[in-house]
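Appendix B. Chain record.
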Amino acid sequence: MEDYPERTITCIIIDDEKDACDRLEHLLLKINSVKVLAKKTNAGDGIKTIFKLLPDIVFLDIEMSDKSGFDIIREVRSKKISPKFIIVTGYSQYAIKAIHNAAFDYLLKPVDIDELKASIDRYIDSQRKVNKQILPQRLKMQYSLTDREIDIVKLLLEGHSSRVIADILFISKHTVDTHRRNILGKMSMNSTSELMGLLNYD
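C-alpha cells predicted for this chain:
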C-alpha cells in the first residue's frame, strides 16, 4: 500500500527530573510526526496538563516525589480520558506492573532513539488498525454510503485494486469502478488517495 503523510502525534512528558524531560524532548524533536505540547516535572501539574491539552501520548516517569506514574494513570483514566501511556523509567522491575496497568509501552532510561522511534511506530500502527475498523461505519453515517459501498470502502482501505475487489465480491470491475466514483462523489473527493489518507486522521 502507498504510504500517506501521518498526522501530528501530540504528547506530554511528565518526569520530576528536568534533565530527563529535556533529553526526551530533544529525541522526540527528531521524529517528524511528533509534537511535544508540554513538559511537567511534578505529577499534579502533569495531570492538569493532560486534562487541558488531551494529548495522544503521555511519556511518564514512575518514581516521582508527589505521586507515582501509576497513580497518574489511574487518576486520568478515572475521568474517562484515555491517552496512551508510555512508561519511561530507569527501573526495569516496573515492566510487569506497567503491563498490568495497560501502559502502551515501556522504555528504559537512558532512552535510545531507535527504541523511541519503534515505540512511536507501534503507536501509529495501532491507531491505523483502530481507524481501519471504525472508519467505514463512520463514513456510512456521515455520507450516507450504501452497504455495498461500505464493502468496497473496506477493501479499498486494505489496499486492494478494483480488479481484486471485483473478484472478492463476485461483481465486474466496471461495477466496482462505478461504485468508487459514487463513493468519491458523495465524499467530495478527487481520488482514492484522499480516502486512504483518512486512515491517518481522527
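Further analysis of this model is presented in Appendix C.
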